[in-house]
Specification:
single chain, 453 residues, alpha/beta, four-stranded parallel sheet, four-stranded mixed sheet, 13 strands
Length: 453
């Protein structure tokens, strides 16, 4: 008589936070039920594999316990897998059949549920499994929709619907407020970034000043979140901002241009790297250095990268950094006050131009529509009136982003120009990047005025 082989079994248990709280399916409860079942059926339980706080709809490659279990299946160390219920195992048809075809069927491994009866050997049994999985999938998606609806409702009322607040904030009565402990960190970070244009440099400076360990990837993600100008999912004034609207726009420009610190391995600092634009071809001038033959001095200069590359640009002039500094400092001293006055006068002149009337015309069209609905005018007259109003619409003029006049006015009334020569090269670079967006250069000639931030 042939000896009956003892089945080698493994348990699989899973909970999400909601399951633990509302359905009593704790890890301990599931494991105890699986062990009792294995003992009653004479199955030798090799181990129990756990996924804690993982929903059944997450990708399989994010379920660590499940992946370890499949490794045991592929090594043919398991004959049967035991779960409490099918929904602890899977909640969608696709993942279930993928697991069956890639792992269980090739290695002749079966599975069973302690609280439910399924037959994987018959057509009707497999149909029942598919039906139960489809229902579980629909329930899971419905729960997700319901949760998103609740979250959207909370967000519309200015409440934060998630567990953890973003960096720099804390949750008070379900609303976001600036965190007094970390607020100085992020105020310093954003101020440094706006001045220097480098996320990495701002991160390093913040960590050095406050003894923190923020990573570049984290701070770079923060620069992309409108939350820090007080906006969330298109809702303005959602939370206290760290940045004004113009500051946010300026930060987006700096980050998009990736104005990193241009320092060579020898520690050389280029004051205008990324700021000089060739008027001929639109490329940004590249920096270069030459050591003088009469001493240890270094000559800094800039040139168009396309000038010597197949001669694709006629701007073959090299521009010395010293000449750029002298020109810009002289221009700021002699012409900045006039530039500010002229710009503000232009704003006053624009204020006298006709404003858009689209809102008023749309209101009149609505009244015409009501007359038509009430039967007081026919379709011909309705169309004539609507077309007449449409032709009278004056669109709102598009607002163009201009320079930060307040920043320039502070520069005008400060002693920054007088003390410029006493600054380090790092500080001088920060000075130019804090006020200038770009400087146009035409064949060795600097064109005025510079484009200010």
């Amino acid at each position: 008589m042939a000896e009956t082989r003892t089945l080698r079994g493994a348990g699989y248990i899973r909970v999400s936070t909601a399951d633990q709280a509302t359905r009593g399916l704790s890890l301990e409860t599931q494991e105890a039920e699986i062990r009792r079942y294995a003992e009653a059926e004479g199955i030798q339980l090799a181990g129990v594999y756990v996924d804690k706080g993982i929903t059944a709809r997450k990708r399989l490659d994010r379920r660590e316990g499940f992946l370890r279990l499949m490794e045991e299946v592929d090594a043919e160390r398991i004959d049967v897998i035991i779960v409490l219920r099918l929904d602890r195992w899977f909640r969608n048809v696709y993942d279930y059949h993928r697991m069956m075809n890639e792992h269980l069927l090739p290695h002749h491994v079966d599975w069973c549920a302690v609280k439910e009866q399924y037959n994987t050997k018959t057509t009707n049994g497999r149909l029942m499994i598919n039906l139960r999985l489809s229902i579980a999938e629909q329930e899971c998606d419905t729960d997700g929709d319901r949760i998103r609806d609740i979250q959207d409702s909370l967000i519309q009322r200015g409440r934060w619907p998630f567990g953890s607040p973003p960096s720099g904030y804390r949750i008070v009565d379900k609303h976001l407020e600036k965190d007094p402990e970390t607020q100085p960190h992020w105020e310093f970070f954003f101020e440094h970034l706006l001045l220097n244009g480098s996320v990495r440099a701002a991160t390093i400076a913040m960590n050095e000043r406050f003894g923190t360990r923020y990573e570049y990837t984290h701070t770079h993600r923060m620069t992309k979140r409108p939350l820090y100008k007080g906006e969330y999912r298109g809702i303005p004034d959602f939370c206290p901002p760290y940045l004004t609207g113009p500051q946010w726009d300026r930060m987006q420009y700096l980050v998009s241009k990736n104005l990193r610190t241009s320092t060579t391995p020898e520690g050389l600092v280029y004051l205008f790297s990324g700021l000089l634009v060739c008027e001929d071809c639109g490329r940004r001038l590249v920096s270069q250095t030459t050591r003088t033959s009469y001493g240890a001095g270094i000559y800094y200069s800039y040139r168009c990268p396309a000038a010597n590359l197949n001669r694709r640009c006629p701007n073959n002039k090299t521009l010395s950094e010293r000449k750029i500094v002298q020109h810009l400092l002289g221009w700021l001293e002699d012409h900045l006050a006039g530039y500010i006055a002229e710009y503000e006068a232009g704003l006053r002149r624009e204020g006298a131009t006709p404003q858009g009337n689209a809102a008023a015309i749309r209101a009149k069209q609505e009244r015409v529509k009501e007359l038509f609905i009430d039967g007081l005018i026919d379709i011909t007259e309705y169309r004539q009136r609507m077309d007449a109003f449409e032709s009278r619409i004056i669109p709102e003029p598009e607002a163009e982003a201009g320079p930060d006049i307040e920043n320039l006015r502070r520069l005008l009334h400060s002693d920054a120009l007088a003390i410029y020569a006493t600054l380090t090269r790092e500080e001088q670079r920060a000075f130019w990047r804090g006020i200038i967006k770009n400087v146009r250069v035409y064949r060795g000639v600097i064109l005025d005025p510079p484009t200010f931030l």
